[in-house]
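Please check the following for our workbook:

***
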Amino acid sequence: MLKKITVMLFSVCTLIFLLAACQADDNRHGSSDMLSGPIDVKFSTDPAEGIKANEPVELQLHISQMGDPVINADEARFEIWYEDNGQEESEDHGDEHTGHGSSDESDSHGDHGDHSDHTDHNNHSSNDMYDTGNEFVDAEEIGDGIYTITYTFDQTGTYYIKYHVTGQGYHSMRTNEIHVE
């Protein structure tokens, strides 16, 4: 009889401990600053049209999640390449890619320009490239979920700009085609 009571008491204590641990874990996740839901990224340029070679243009990302701006994104960067660098746009660059269940409904302003050959005339590091040979430029957060760079494209033609955004546990990337006059 004493053995039964001891086993039952031990079982009840274990159950209470497990329930308390699960409750604490739920509270920790429920009170976090992370919103549930995918991030939404909108790409734009300023000027929106008539981008010219050798003139600065602002590339912007508007990042939100469930209508709220994403502050302090883990990653917000642009991958930039000219159409003649030997890579085709369709070669892992054209399709939208999102991770962790995120959706990516981006504004792709098709007639916008951008790029530079991998020189440092934009004061951006061209050392941060993967095996693609494309230039990667980190965007600066300016507030309200807006991340931006100013970039000067040195020649006319078609460029591709792929943004890479990671924030709130989600990743999103999409390629935009830009035309420079």
Residues 24-33, 89-98, 100-129 have pLDDT under 50 and may be disordered. The beta strands are 39-46, 56-65, 68-69, 75-82, 97-99, 135-138, 140-143, 146-152, 157-167, 170-180.
